[in-house]
Specification:
The protein has one helix at 2-125. The chain is mostly helical. The chain is rod-shaped, with a radius of gyration of 53 Å. The N and C termini lie far apart (180 Å).
Amino acid sequence: MAESTTEVITKGLASLGQAQSDLQGTLEEERRRTAGLKQQLEELTQQLTLLSNDNVQLLGERQLRLDRTEKLLVEAKSLEQDTEKCSERTSDLHRQMLELRDTQRKEELHFTEKMNELREKIISAK
């Protein structure tokens, strides 16, 4: 019985040694897997940081374009108003030009009439 107890103990110890060895192997495998996962996590974190920075940059560029667009719209509105004022002024000037032409024709007609009267007086005075 002592031999069988010794054998049982020896087998038990061998079995425990094998289990400890298996666990050590599993532990090493888990450590390597954890290290790989940590490395993947670091890489993903770096990629996420780069993407975040890219997004910030793109948002900044978009905001600049929006600001420029707003300025251009304000400028376009101002130019539209200036164009309307110029159009009104052109219409006013055209009306004034027509009035001046009319006045000039009247003056020329009046001048011609006066010249004709003077001719008649000169002719009748001779």
